[in-house]
Predict the structure.
Amino acid sequence: MSYFISGEKEDWEVVIGLEVHAQVVSDSKLFSDASTEFGAKPNTQVSLVDSAMPGMLPVINKVCIKQAVRTGLGLNSKINLHSVFERKNYFYPDLPQGYQISQYLQPIVGEGIVTLEMSGEIREIGVERLHLEQDAGKSIHDQDPRNTLIDLNRAGVALMEIVSKPDLRSPQEAGAYMRKLRAIMRYLGTCDGNMEEGSLRCDANVSVRPKSTSELRTRAEIKNINSVRFVEDAIEYEAKRQVDIYDSGGTVNQETRLYDSDKGETRSMRSKEEAHDYRYFPDPDLLPIDLSTEFVDEIRKGLPELPDAKKLRFVGEMGLSEGDAEILVSEKEIADYFEDLSVGRDPKLSANWVIHELFARLKKDDLNIDNSPVKADRLGSLLDLIEDKTITNQIATSVLETMWTSAEDPVAIVEKKGLQQITDTGQIDSAVEKVILENTDQVSQYKDGNEKVLGWLVGQVMKTTQGKADAKSVNEILRKKMDSG
Amino acid sequence: MAIDKAKVKEIAKLARMKVADKDESELATELNQILDWIEQLDEVDTKNVLPVTSVTSEILSQRDDKVTNLDQKDKVLANSPSDNSDFYVVPKVVE
Amino acid sequence: MTLTSLTISGARDKLQSGEFSSEELIKEHISTVEKCKNLNAFITSTPEIALDLARKSDARRARGETLGGMDGIPIGIKDLFCTEGVLTTAASHILDGFIPPYESTVSGNLRSGGAVMIGKTNMDEFAMGSANITSHYGPVKNPWYLNDGKDRVPGGSSGGSASAVAANLCLGAAASDTGGSIRQPASFCGIVGMKPTYGRCSRWGMVAFSSSLDQAGPLTKTVRDASIMLQSMVSHDPKDSTSSPEVIPNFEAAITGDIRGLKVGIPEEYRISEMSPEIDKLWSKGVELLKSAGAEIVDVSLPHTKYALPTYYIIAPAEASSNLARYDGVRYGLRVDGSDLNDMYEATRGEGFGKEVKRRIMIGTYVLSAGYYDAYYLKAQKVRSLIIQDFNDIFDRVDVLLTPTTPFAAFPIGEKMDDPVQMYINDIFTVPASMAGLPSLSLPGGLSDEGLPLGLQLITKAFDEETLFQCGDILEKQINFSHQAPYIEEIGS
Ligand SMILES: [Mg+2]
Ligand SMILES: [Zn+2]
């Protein structure tokens, strides 16, 4: 599905590249032994290294290297066996060393690919690189009228910067790419993807060009966007802004912009405007990282099944629809829940219940699947009752409602309330006869060839049996009796 | 002259270091002396030479992912020029 | 004989035999430091700490629990090692009032070996200088002088440490060498200075100047003392990624008194035009002495020697410009208020750094900046490869190199200051080994015609400090340098 912005004379295409900063899941920081835990009191997770005391030196955390390689493999990327930490030099109070230790010319992960499915169309988005670097601290501007306060708890936390190629062509694609990256890293356990806590942030490079052209125009960089929706909104606004500028004969400035989610607009960041000269050079406090192919292979062997492969299996082996499979793999927790549920059960029935019944119920209470009051094993017992025809689908929905607030087993609930399916055909026969007698108008409409009325009549029978009759048998018996009567 | 007064200003700005106006030309002269002398390296053919990455040719030692640094806010802030006991403090930054 | 004129090995033996206590030894050194304040060798003296440590050392010894060769020995610590609870300045205004809440690995190692710090020695600001004239705390005087009324520089950057040892204010000093900062002042002050292989001593807690070059080492009165003191300084430190896991030998045991068959290389490129004839003479004498002790002399060539110094003056300032970015007035040390953040940065760094440090930050910033990186920094790192290759090539054929340490003797304070390049020539013989991370040692070779000390330098391959001590000890005995600084006689220190 193509996305174009209509300008005064022509349609415009938007070109987007994303730089995603993902916090590595690790207990301690990239180069120091301070904790990475979120939410601690200011400056209580700061080591002498993080506060850049004279003579302090960085020592690399081996888990962070592993996590970067794991993520690289998950993004189908080339792992560089030789990579180098460099210093990116600039002055800012939340950067105590006066430089950020990052990777520049030789990152740990090279080119890769992320596959998106946009309304049935497969889009392959290129990953340029992934590198390891330190996070900065936090500047707090609004607590003191005259000063900025600095909290270094985050300073030195390991980040993976994942840079995409300028392959994204719409705000929705950018959003889908972010969601996909997040899902992959959560499957891998390399980033928790918690955007409210800042574990996943993104800078968007946005430019526009007339639909018919292929050269890249000047781009603006929107910094530090911290939600998928804001990524989409910011890009949409920014692309439109640039088209308006070109339409009115102006030129777009290469600049850093900030997205104001309250106003729904981007604006120039004056403080970042001055030309930067980062004076990158290899950090002499650290040697290059040299990995063995055995090390990489070992990590490769330990990779979990990722969303794309899982989806293929759900469709190919379980016979689910593309759409259902896509939904089930979109989050690791959903996939895990579904897989627990579908062991030894009908996959389609399981998928239906997760996607329709469970999701609806969760949505009502504004809950996530991982804090669902009904766990996969209990929902499984309920599905077993459907499969062995103890209860009908319809009854099962109401049992789920009871299970939501009760710790009781579905078997017990069904027993207690006498909700077992009516299997005695005599009982169904009499219910059907009663409905035929009471609805002669509708019966004659059916006989005139209006098939639709059949469904309504089935509903009437279900009502009189309180949903305990099997809809399929009711259907058959109804048809037989009306056709012969 | 590779470096004039304007260049001195520019480098000083990059290094966040005030250089008095009266010192600029002297500094420019000295920096040019040094750079002229350094230029003798142009004689050396380095076409097929790899740059040094480390003099000791060891492999990078890696630490375990352990949190051994417990709260030492007081130590870390002890030398701060400000008397705030929870934060480092700098003049207000406008973003 | 006074207690201050002892060597480390001499004091060690006499402490052990109970001839005097560490407390007595320390007291005499403390009062000598008091008497010799005009040398300006110390930035901070720590007599109370010293006496406390001395008493503890004596108590240990009384229990028969001596910690090793340095136990109870008075030493100076260059003010670039962070010392817990004791002012540490790197001789810079910008570290005003900085009291580290931690102890550097090297000074910590010495302390756990029982050594007694009597104070923090003066130095060139951030170890940038070859004359100890750039210290915020004023220049250091060399205890060696002539009758012309002019004070001589002690060399730098470890000028305070060298002057203190040469004037008998302490028995040894822990110093640091980036391009010659231990060896050159050792040469100027008539003592022994030793820089081990890069990676032998941990850099953790040592204020960084140039990370790929900085290396701690001892300044002492004799070669044997250097071996004893180095033993106490080295360790494999997991807190420094460039610290070497190489096995640490017993350095003093390497002093065997026999160098028969040792191959000594004489690099022709060290015979430079700036060198005075008396240095040439001294060098030749050294060659003869080693030959007579049974060494085999081999002429060798290190073709890229002359490029080491300009290469150094790209790499060291580049690393320094980045290492010194943390001195910004935010977390420690000097802050000069400004109208806004950048103004505060610029005012603090403008006032906090001295002239030479600023000059090097400027050069370093320039050579790393966009458009110049390849031409300067990358080029320098390539030439550095060639310099390392030169050494690798000859250490197949020789065990040790003999060269002069400096091209001239100590000069009067105030001279050679107008042209920075002239000042840089001081380090022309010491920088090449630094560039390659090799161990080297300077020892007194004799006196100049005027009567000032001149040093000879030995260089070995990486991690072969043992050969350095073995050969240095022989050369020291052969030379038998028995002169002492005129200042000692004058003041009776
Ligand atoms: Mg970036
Ligand atoms: Zn980044």
